[in-house]
Design a protein that fits this description.
The structure holds two protein chains of two kinds. The radius of gyration of chain A is 21 Å and the shape is globular. By secondary structure, chain A is α/β, with parallel strands linked by helices. Chain A is about 40% helix and about 15% strand. In chain A, α10 packs parallel to α11. Chain A folds into two domains: about 210 residues, Periplasmic binding protein-like II (D-Maltodextrin-Binding Protein, domain 2, 3-Layer(aba) Sandwich), CATH 3.40.190.10; about 140 residues, D-Maltodextrin-Binding Protein, domain 2, CATH 3.40.190. In chain A, the strands form three sheets. In chain A, strands 5, 6, 7, 8, 9, 10 and 12 form a seven-stranded mixed β-sheet that branches. A three-stranded parallel β-sheet of chain A has the order 2-1-3. Chain B contains 13 helices and two strands, in the order ααββααααααααααα. Chain B has a two-stranded antiparallel sheet with strand order 1-2. Chain B is globular, with a radius of gyration of 23 Å. Classes of the chains: A alpha/beta, B mainly alpha. The interface between A and B is large, with 36 and 37 residues.
């Protein structure tokens, strides 16, 4: 979820959006995937290669530090085959369609539950991942989508809030109410929201003092009314392009994820805000898809990245929060990343947040509201 | 049309149709059947499809909200067909009758097909951007206001539709016009028809088959169009195609998605039958 990037967006990241024609950009993007499969290369030193075989890792793009692949291969002898998905639904559709042979994937929490219920996951054997057992922050165990930790181990976590351009927005918004007021007022038509019913409806519910996961029809109705007022002021509904729009200054206020917010702030004067009222707290988790040929390699990967030093390398690359205990991470991680509140929000901030736990009934109710919102 | 060309032609053994028929049965009728079954099933839990007969999905669709979406889709398809016809006919006419470098011009019509539909549509994002040279110029000379922007608007969707579907209209029209015997038009004019009357009484009936094909080629896929509204329209409007994609990919309600698709297919069948019947009658009177 943090990373619903299509190839389009990754292209824009590298080359800048308006500067060049899409044609050139796309040809370039297809030709040069800097995540290329060089994992097995460069391993000249002889090491303890107990495992061997191949790990087929299905993941969001740019969600693993490229250095980690060869390091893991060196440590375990396991080669890595990579494949990428652009959305949780993309992963689900592939597994449900019968694709087999993936050993490891990293969907968002709500999707873990859906996949587990559809019998598309293999169980996690915690005895094989002593590092995770030892180093995981207990907060990331027994999460609502997997209460008994049977199917998943947390990988990264983050928040859903909004990012605004501090040079183009004079006011200092801190809440969803501010977001709505500014969006429907002075910054009309310079605002985007994610293309996701849970995020937009949930954040609006939270603004109104309700639960992110509410299934109360009158509460949802109130949220819908607010959203319908917001609609005419939107520039676009997008999960993949708002980062570029914000960097270009075409959008000055965007409902989105913390990693994208941090990415905008790295290039332009901008700030990512977790709204005062609260919002979504999401966790992406390792799972082992049904039909894995090498579940031992999957366990080995999880165990490897749960070593605090290895985990620090990951966090310094992804800028998403780590589920490893803070005190174990502190001595080994770049202090700048450790103290960046976009990556690691204050505990007081996290307390206000909720994880997506929408039921099938809630999904149906949200779907109709979403259609009405988009059709308005 | 079919009747005419069939008469007197050589007869081929019927089994020659077998591979084609098998292909259609397997990959067209098969999925259609599955969809029909889905549309009367229901979703349970997050993803499961329970196969029991119920018209619940269709009842749920009976809602002004979805009615509006269908009407808007019909509007878009009609607009696209009319607009490409309006732009495409004069062009095809010129191409077939007057153009010197026919092959070159024809090539220019076809060349865009060599590039992916997605890339072509994304490149319009750059052209429609307020930072594009044309719009900067218009702004500088004061034709458009400071805030003028086409990107992510309805107009952007319309522009994208006309651009993308134009070749589908031009090619069959050109094929029909190319085969025209222009001496017939000359004869009509020699016998006293004014140019417009000759066009209506001679040219139009003769190119009608091509015109019908062009209209169908544009209209049918437009009823399922969902990428142009997402890319150029900023995803701010919903058409039937978007609604279906949303059910399959994000709401995960396959039965409901299948029901919407069945309604679209049903409505389209009725409209196309009506259209071809009307057109066939035209053709008879004209000929």
């Amino acid at each position: 979820m943090p990373d619903q990037r299509s190839i389009w967006e990754r292209t824009y990241n590298r080359k800048g959006f308006v500067a060049i024609s899409a044609l050139t950009a796309l040809t370039a993007a297809c030709g040069s995937d800097d995540d290329g499969d060089s994992a097995a290369g460069g391993t000249t030193t002889e090491t303890t290669k107990e495992l061997g075989g191949t790990l087929h890792y299905y993941n969001w793009a740019d969600y693993v530090n490229p250095k980690t692949y060869p390091a893991f291969t060196t440590a375990t002898g396991v080669k890595i085959k990579k494949d990428f998905f652009v959305s949780n639904e993309d992963l689900q559709a592939k597994l449900q369609g019968g694709a087999r042979g993936y050993d490891l994937a990293a969907p968002t929490g709500y999707m873990v539950k859906i996949l587990a219920e559809a019998d598309l996951l293999e169980p996690i054997d915690w005895a094989k991942i002593p590092n995770a057992t030892k180093n995981i922050d207990p907060k990331f165990k027994g999460l609502p989508f997997d209460p008994n930790d049977e199917w998943s181990v947390a990988k990264d976590w983050g928040t859903t809030g909004f990012v605004y351009r501090t040079d183009l927005v004079k006011e200092k918004p801190v809440s969803w109410r501010d977001f709505y007021d500014l969006a429907t007022g002075p910054y009309s038509k310079k605002v985007t929201v994610l293309d996701g019913a849970p995020e937009v409806i949930g954040s609006t519910l939270v603004m109104l003092g309700h639960s992110y996961n509410s299934e109360d029809e009158s509460e949802l109705e109130q949220a819908k009314q607010e959203m319908l007022k917001l609609k005419p002021h939107l520039l676009a509904i997008t999960s993949t392009e708002y980062k570029q729009m914000a960097i270009a200054g075409r959008a000055v206020l965007s409902l989105g994820w913390n990693g994208d917010g941090a990415a905008v702030a790295a290039k332009k004067p901008a700030e990512y805000i977790v709204a005062e009222e609260g919002g979504e707290f999401w966790v992406d988790s390792y799972v082992i898809p049904t039909g894995s040929k090498n579940p031992d390699a999957a366990h080995a990967w999880i165990d490897y990245v749960y070593d605090p030093a290895h985990n620090a390398v990951e966090t310094e690359f992804t800028y998403y929060g780590s589920p490893v205990k803070r005190d174990l991470l502190k001595p080994v991680i770049d202090p700048e990343v450790f103290n960046n509140t976009d990556v690691f929000p204050e505990p007081s901030t996290i307390e206000k947040l909720e994880a997506n736990a929408i039921s099938p009934k809630g999904t149906k109710l949200r779907d109709r509201i979403w259609t009405e919102f988009k059709a308005a | 049309m079919a009747g005419r060309s069939g008469v007197g032609g050589p007869r081929y053994p019927a089994w020659l149709a077998l591979p084609g028929a098998a292909w259609y049965a397997l990959f067209f009728l098969g999925p259609l059947g599955i969809m029909a079954v889905f549309s009367v099933s229901r979703r349970e839990g997050y993803t499961d499809v329970v196969y029991d007969f119920s018209l619940e999905n269709f009842r749920y669709l009976w809602d002004p909200l979805y009615g509006d979406v269908f009407l808007r889709t019909f509007g878009l398809a009609t607009f696209g067909t009319a607009a490409t016809l309006l732009v495409g006919f004069p062009f095809a006419y010129y191409l077939a009758r007057y153009a010197r470098r026919k092959t070159l011009l024809l090539l220019l019509v076809i060349v865009p097909f060599w590039t992916s539909f997605l890339i072509r549509t994304y490149s319009w994002l750059i052209i429609l951007s307020p930072d594009f040279v044309l719009f900067r110029f218009l702004r500088d000379i004061g034709v458009t206001g400071e805030d003028f922007s086409l990107i992510y608007t309805r107009e952007a969707i319309y522009i994208g539709v006309v651009y993308n579907y134009l070749p589908l209209m031009v090619l069959p029209l050109y094929a029909a016009l190319e085969r025209m015997d222009w001496t017939l038009v000359d004869a009509a004019q020699d016998l006293g028809d004014r140019p417009l009357t000759a066009f209506r009484r001679v040219t139009l009936p003769l190119v009608l088959p091509g015109l019908i094909v062009g209209c169908l080629l544009v209209f049918i896929p437009l009823t399922g169009e969902y990428l142009i509204p997402v890319i150029l329209g900023g995803d701010l409007t919903v058409f039937a195609g978007n609604l279906i994609a949303q059910q399959f990919l994000t709401a995960r309600d396959w039965p409901f998605g299948a029901a919407i698709a069945m309604v679209v297919i049903g409505a389209m069948t009725v409209m196309i039958l009506a259209f071809t019947r009307l057109a066939a009658r035209e053709e008879q009177y004209g000929g």
